[in-house]
Amino acid sequence: MNDALPHDPLVIAGKPYRSRLITGTGKFKDFDETRRATDAAGAEIVTAAIRRINLGQSPNEPSLLDALPPEKFTLLPNTAGCYTAEDAVRTCRLARELLDGHKLVKLEVLGDQKTLYPDVVQTLKAAELLVADGFDVMVYTSDDPILAKRLEEIGCVAVMPLAAPIGSGLGIQNKWSLLEIIDNAKVPVIVDAGVGTASDAAIAMELGCDGVLMNTAIAGAKDPVLMASAMRKAVQAGREAFLAGRIPRKRNASASSPIEGLIG
After folding, report:
1. What pTM does this model have?
2. I need a labelling partner for 139 at 20 to 30 A (CA). Which of 88, 156, 166, 242 fits?
3. How confident is the model at residue 249, as a pLDDT?
4. Cβ distance 151 to 161 under 8 Å?
5. H or E stretch covering 65
6. Burial bucket for residue 243 (CB in 10 Å: 0-12, 13-18, 19+)
7. How do residues 248-258 score in pLDDT, each as one tens digit?
């Protein structure tokens, strides 16, 4: 199944992708389930916590790269678990070393262990350091439109505002903030965190987001592979609905069939 409309790719750091669904690789029961869910999602970009998953640090142990080979998938190393800019930068440099100069990374600097809400001050600092060091930075951030614009101005290749706290499954909690970010962005806007089910993903895409990243919503489902398939369809449907343009909302009914020529 081709998830893209003709001439409608998602472009990240100059590279086009057919799929607008980015998936995580954590929380699955094993690498086999990870691969099957990734295939069902149609994902081309997959994110992985460099400090939690073996990407070559432990040569004698199973590696995610065996299940999701780099020649087929674009790996997006992330800085999950980092609480300072320095730690995040160090983690990205480790990923670059392990992955033979790989530049594309997902930056996240957390500020609170309970909510996993981003520390925006440390995020800005880390983004500046990483961009200056030649990384292509996709950045997890709060849904603050001013901050999102500042991260874009620093040079991040995509801004990734949360829709709700990580792993909460609460869905899109502030449409206004997302719309402000979308309207002012010249780089892709990808919802990251908060999606719980397929309708949440569709709503994000209908608002005009360029893509959706999710992990828990798929890996935590009763049937992760089936949920991955549902998310794939939802992202595609939401994108098509956004491009098609919805009808205006009105308080009163409007007949879908013409009334001219009715008998009597």
Report:
1. 0.90
2. 242
3. 86
4. no
5. helix 64-67
6. exposed
7. 988 877 766 66
The C-alpha R_g of the chain, in whole angstroms, comes to 20
* Catalytic positions, written as ranges: 106
Strands (DSSP E) contained in the chain are 10-12, 15-17, 21-24, 45-49, 74-78, 104-107, 136-141, 158-161, 190-192, 211-214
Helix, strand, coil distribution of the chain in percent, nearest 5? 35, 15, 45
Sequential DSSP letters for 79-124:
-TT--SHHHHHHHHHHHHHHTTS--EEEE--BS-TTT--B-HHHHH
Band of residue 261 on the pLDDT scale cut at 50, 70, 90: low
Q: How does pLDDT run across 101-118, given as a tens digit for each residue?
A: 999 999 999 998 888 899
* Per-residue pLDDT at 146 exceeds 90: yes
Closest CA to 25 of 13, 16, 12, 35: 35
Q: Which of 94, 78, 74 is nearest to 138 (CA)?
A: 78
Element (H, E) at 147: helix 145-154
Confidence of residue 1 (pLDDT cuts 50, 70, 90): very low
Tokens for 159, please give them: 């801004």
